[in-house]
Specification:
mainly alpha
Length: 210
């Protein structure tokens, strides 16, 4: 083969190799970038968390007008952003009358989910049941159990729901269970009920370990 043709052949082969490498690296970079920027949405699960948190603050079954749930609903199906969190904070002020967000309250929950989305933490961003975390789903179940045996239409101050609310977004630990039990005993007069709030939290924790 003439030297000129040989050099041209080698150049074409080299060009194809470089092209393949660049294409592969670009795909890897694109996949990495997309995995690091996981958008959180104001979906039904998110709204459920905000609603459960508001109910724990207000002791009312229905969301307050212009409260955090109402503010979040105005952004339904939108991407969770700092502006959405700001609106939820404004709604929380309507409910609490305080400029400082309540620990574990609607603002705290929204901020936690947004931070998780920005860091690409899928486990925190989603609201899957049975993941061993104090989330909106668990709070709703505890509210249901508390009102069931207390006879009240809404959670009691310092009760199991209020205790669980302080740990929203945290893993279910022995300390969380202890606090929920303390709240349960406050409502019942010192007893624990079979299938009550503490049992509900324990069941969630057990499922997460299966």
């Amino acid at each position: 083969m003439p030297i000129k043709l040989f050099l041209i052949s080698r150049l074409i082969t080299f060009s194809k190799t470089v092209s393949q490498v660049l294409t592969t690296n670009f795909r890897h970079f694109r996949n990495f970038s997309s995995s690091r920027t996981m958008a959180a949405l104001v979906d039904s699960q998110f709204l459920s968390k905000i609603n459960a948190s508001e109910r724990a603050l207000t002791n009312h079954d229905t969301p307050v007008k212009d409260g955090p749930t109402a503010r979040a609903q105005s952004h339904a199906n939108e991407e969770l952003t700092a502006q959405v969190v700001s609106d939820i904070t404004a709604g929380e002020r309507v409910v609490t009358g305080s400029d400082s967000p309540a620990p574990g309250g609607p603002t705290s929950i929204a901020q936690s989910i947004l931070a998780a989305a920005l860091s690409g933490d899928a486990s925190t961003t989603s609201a899957r049941g049975g993941d061993g975390v104090v989330d909106g789903d668990l709070i709703s179940k505890i509210i249901e159990k508390e009102t069931e045996f207390s006879g009240e239409s809404s959670p009691v101050k310092g009760g199991p729901t209020a205790q669980a609310q302080m740990h929203v977004g945290e893993p279910i630990t022995s300390q969380v269970l202890s606090d929920v039990t303390k709240g349960e005993k406050k409502v019942t007069g010192g007893e624990r009920f079979l299938g009550g709030p503490t049992a509900t939290a324990q069941s969630r924790l057990a499922k997460s370990k299966q």
